[in-house]
C-alpha cells in the first residue's frame, strides 16, 4: 500500500488506516524477498517494479502476459478464517496460463482490495502469493493493497494478479503445432483448484454441509480439502518443454477439461480422451452426490482431477511421463489426437463408475 502524505485524521475517520497499511507492508517484506530473481532491479521509490530482460538468452524474445483472480474461493477462505494459501491459488491461475504459450514466468504483481487493512491477514495473503511465486520460479516485484471501507465489509477482501513471462519467438506453443497421432498427457490437479466455487458454496449451503466435518471418503476436514491450493505446473511445464517435443498445453480451469483442451487444438483435429485412465479425487464425487450434479455438469464446471494437459509428439509420450514422474507430478496417457473438427471428446467411464 502506498502511503498517502496528504492523509489526515479525517481520512482515518472515514475508515482508511494508513498506519495499518504501512505495518502490512513491513510484515510482507520478508515474504516478497524470497521470490527475488537476479534480473530484478531495485526501485528505491517503490512506485514500480523493475525487471531487466536478459536479451542475451534469446534471439527473438516475446513477452507473454496473463491476469486473473481466484473467484469466490476467497469467500471460503474468509469463512474459515484461513488466508495463507489463497495467494498460491492466485499465482497458479496466472502463471499456469502463461506457460501454455511455452513462456517461462518471470514476475508477478498483485492487487488486494479489502474493507479494512488487518496487517497480519494481509501478510498471510501475501505470504501465500510469495510461496506461489517461489513454486513458479518468478519474482513478486510489486503490488497494491487498497482499503475500501463502505464498499466492502471489514472482514472482506478480494485479490487479483498479473504475470509476465518470456518465450523464444520461434518456440511459441499452440494449436498450429499439434499433429495427428500426438499423445495427450494429463497432469493431476490437487483438487478443484480455483474454479467452480460458486457451485461448491451453493452445494455446501443447500446440503447443509459442515466445513469442519471429516467425511470418511475424504479422510480430512471438508473445509481443508476445499481450500487445498492450486497445483502450480509452471516449472514442470518449462522442464518438460526442454526435455521432449511439446506441441501444446492446456490449463484446465473454468469450463472443464474438454472445453479448455479444445482451445489448444487446430480446426481439423480432435483429441479423444479416455475416462478409464483415471479416477477423479473423492471430493468431486462428494460434491456431485450432495449437490445432485450430473456428470455432464460436473465436467463442464470442474477440472475433475486433471489440472494441466500436454500434447506431445507420439514418440515422446513415455519420456514425457518419465520427466513428470521424476518431478513428482502424477501424470498419465489420457488420449490421442485424431482427425476431426477441433474438439476434445471424453469417452468411456471412470473406474468403478
TrEMBL record:
<keyword id="KW-0547">Nucleotide-binding</keyword>
<dbReference type="InterPro" id="IPR010918">
    <property type="entry name" value="PurM-like_C_dom"/>
</dbReference>
<dbReference type="InterPro" id="IPR004733">
    <property type="entry name" value="PurM_cligase"/>
</dbReference>
<dbReference type="GO" id="GO:0046084">
    <property type="term" value="P:adenine biosynthetic process"/>
</dbReference>
<dbReference type="GO" id="GO:0005524">
    <property type="term" value="F:ATP binding"/>
</dbReference>
<comment type="similarity">
    <text>Belongs to the AIR synthase family.</text>
</comment>
<dbReference type="Pfam" id="PF00586">
    <property type="entry name" value="AIRS"/>
</dbReference>
<protein>
    <recommendedName>
        <fullName>Phosphoribosylformylglycinamidine cyclo-ligase</fullName>
        <ecNumber>6.3.3.1</ecNumber>
    </recommendedName>
</protein>
<dbReference type="InterPro" id="IPR036921">
    <property type="entry name" value="PurM-like_N_sf"/>
</dbReference>
<dbReference type="GO" id="GO:0005829">
    <property type="term" value="C:cytosol"/>
</dbReference>
<feature type="domain" description="PurM-like C-terminal">
    <location>
        <begin position="179"/>
        <end position="342"/>
    </location>
</feature>
<dbReference type="InterPro" id="IPR016188">
    <property type="entry name" value="PurM-like_N"/>
</dbReference>
<dbReference type="GO" id="GO:0006189">
    <property type="term" value="P:'de novo' IMP biosynthetic process"/>
</dbReference>
<dbReference type="Pfam" id="PF02769">
    <property type="entry name" value="AIRS_C"/>
</dbReference>
<keyword id="KW-0436">Ligase</keyword>
<keyword id="KW-0067">ATP-binding</keyword>
<comment type="pathway">
    <text>Purine metabolism; IMP biosynthesis via de novo pathway; 5-amino-1-(5-phospho-D-ribosyl)imidazole from N(2)-formyl-N(1)-(5-phospho-D-ribosyl)glycinamide: step 2/2.</text>
</comment>
<keyword id="KW-0963">Cytoplasm</keyword>
<keyword id="KW-0658">Purine biosynthesis</keyword>
<feature type="domain" description="PurM-like N-terminal">
    <location>
        <begin position="61"/>
        <end position="167"/>
    </location>
</feature>
<dbReference type="InterPro" id="IPR036676">
    <property type="entry name" value="PurM-like_C_sf"/>
</dbReference>
<dbReference type="GO" id="GO:0004637">
    <property type="term" value="F:phosphoribosylamine-glycine ligase activity"/>
</dbReference>
<dbReference type="GO" id="GO:0004641">
    <property type="term" value="F:phosphoribosylformylglycinamidine cyclo-ligase activity"/>
</dbReference>
Amino acid at each position: 500500500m502506498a502511503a498517502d502524505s496528504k492523509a489526515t485524521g479525517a481520512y482515518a475517520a472515514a475508515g482508511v488506516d494508513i498506519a495499518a497499511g504501512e505495518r502490512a507492508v513491513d510484515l510482507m517484506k520478508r515474504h516478497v524477498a524470497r521470490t527475488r530473481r537476479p534480473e530484478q532491479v531495485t526501485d528505491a521509490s517503490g512506485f514500480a517494479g523493475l525487471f531487466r530482460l536478459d536479451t542475451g538468452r534469446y534471439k527473438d524474445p516475446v513477452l507473454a502476459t496473463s491476469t486473473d483472480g481466484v473467484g469466490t474461493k476467497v469467500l471460503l477462505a474468509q469463512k474459515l478464517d484461513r488466508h495463507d494459501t489463497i495467494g498460491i491459488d492466485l499465482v497458479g491461475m496466472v502463471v499456469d496460463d502463461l506457460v501454455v504459450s511455452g513462456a517461462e514466468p518471470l514476475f508477478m504483481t498483485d492487487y488486494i482490495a479489502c474493507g479494512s487493512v488487518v496487517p497480519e491477514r494481509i501478510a498471510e495473503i501475501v505470504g501465500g502469493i510469495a510461496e506461489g511465486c517461489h513454486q513458479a520460479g518468478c519474482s513478486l516485484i510489486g503490488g497494491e493493497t487498497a482499503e475500501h471501507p463502505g464498499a466492502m465489509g471489514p472482514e472482506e477482501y478480494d485479490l487479483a494478479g498479473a504475470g509476465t513471462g518470456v518465450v523464444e519467438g520461434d518456440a511459441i506453443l499452440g494449436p498450429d503445432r499439434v499433429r495427428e497421432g500426438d499423445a495427450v498427457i494429463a497432469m493431476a490437479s490437487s483438487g478443484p483448484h480455483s474454479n467452480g466455487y460458486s457451485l461448491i458454496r451453493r452445494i455446501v449451503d443447500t446440503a447443509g454441509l459442515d466445513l469442519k466435518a471429516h467425511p470418511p471418503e475424504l479422510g480430512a476436514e471438508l473445509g481443508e480439502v476445499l481450500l487445498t491450493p492450486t497445483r502450480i505446473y509452471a516449472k514442470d511445464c518449462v522442464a518438460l518443454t526442454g526435455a521432449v517435443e511439446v506441441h501444446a498445453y492446456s490449463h484446465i480451469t473454468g469450463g472443464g477439461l474438454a472445453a479448455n483442451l479444445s482451445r489448444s487444438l487446430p480446426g481439423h483435429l480432435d483429441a479423444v480422451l479416455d475416462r478409464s485412465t483415471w479416477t477423479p479425487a473423492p471430493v468431486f464425487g462428494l460434491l456431485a452426490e450432495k449437490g445432485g450434479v450430473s456428470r455432464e455438469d460436473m465436467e463442464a464446471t470442474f477440472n475433475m482431477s486433471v489440472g494441466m494437459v500436454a500434447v506431445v509428439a507420439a514418440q515422446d509420450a513415455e519420456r514425457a511421463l518419465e520427466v513428470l514422474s521424476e518431478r513428482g507430478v502424477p501424470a498419465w496417457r489420457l488420449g490421442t489426437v485424431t482427425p476431426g473438427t477441433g474438439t476434445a471428446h471424453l469417452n468411456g467411464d471412470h473406474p468403478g463408475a
